[in-house]
Amino acid sequence: MSAQGPVIVIAPLPSVLPRGRERVELQRDHARRAVRRSALAQNAPRLALRKNVDEVPQPDQGWHWSLSHSPSRVAGVVSPSRVGVDVEEARAVRADMIDRILDEREKALFEERGEDGFLRTWTGKEALLKEFGVGLQALSRCRIERVDADTLELRFDGQRRVVYQRFFPDHVVSICSQDSSEPRYEVWDAPLAPSEERAP
After folding, report:
1. Cα 151 from Cα 163, distance rounded (Å)
2. Does residue 89 fall inside a structural domain?
3. H or E element: which one contains 165?
4. Burial code of 17-40, b = ≥16 C-beta within 10 A, e = fewer?
5. Does 69 fall in a domain?
6. Contact (CB, 8 A) for 158 and 143
7. In this structure, are residues 65 and 47 in contact, taking their beta carbons and an 8 Å threshold?
8. Cys bridge to 146: 50, 93, 115, 153, which one at CB 3.0-4.6 A?
9. Which CATH number goes with the domain that contains 140?
């Protein structure tokens, strides 16, 4: 493991997107480009990017990977240790959804900071669950212990993790890795072209 944390690549999607299945395929393709760009930024080999039958990303050549996409952004990361990433856009949320994601103690942690905490909690917990290779059915086993300006400390099945968060005007990106190393960010202003995921 290098002394530096993983490089997370964040990029917008094209401004005009197809509909339906074609849209989902395009989002996945761009998210995979972000993963490959992260590998390139860390001198990692080109990875196969295979998933198991449960759709959990499988390590390749000693590297773990994770990707995420929202309606307008993608994020991708590779790391020598287990890793999970989530990107979500800011949006209005119903009160019952907030109650499903945050317990009363977690709400109080955010209220002390003057935040509602939903988007930070959602992306933080999802990044952690991705790192552990489990789905949202395990959400109730994930608890926030501490809230800071750009990190969350979480516990999952007795294990502590630090989730790093990066904030943008319209979205949040969260990353969680097995070794809790602080990530480096590569933020793109334009969609990634296929040529940008390979060395020149």
Report:
1. 5
2. yes
3. strand 159-167
4. eeeeeeeeebbeebbbbbbbbbbb
5. yes
6. no
7. yes
8. 153
9. 3.90.470.20
Is 51 within the bounds of a domain?
A: yes
User: 59-87 pLDDT, tens per residue?
Assistant: 999 999 999 999 999 999 999 999 999 99
Q: Provide the whole-model pTM.
A: 0.92
Q: What is the pLDDT of residue 145?
A: 96
Pick from 6, 144, 190: nearest CA to 85: 6
Give me the pLDDT at residue 92, please: 85
What is the token pair recorded at 10? Answer: 């964040």
- Counting the structural domains of the chain, the total is 1
Residue 197 — pLDDT band, cuts 50, 70, 90?
A: low
136-144 contact pairs (CB < 8 A, 24+) = 139/101, 143/103, 143/106, 144/102, 144/106, 144/109
Nearest to 134 by CA among 156, 151, 154: 156
Quick one: pLDDT at residue 179?
87
Reply yes or no on whether the pLDDT at 1 is more than 70. Answer: no
Q: What are the contacts of 110-119 at 24+ separation with CB within 8 A?
A: 110/147, 112/147, 113/147, 115/147, 117/147, 118/93, 119/88, 119/90, 119/93, 119/172
Range of the domain at 150: 7-197
Cα 107 to Cα 91, 113, 133: the distances in Å are 18, 10, 26
pLDDT at 183: 95
Structure confidence at residue 123 (pLDDT): 96
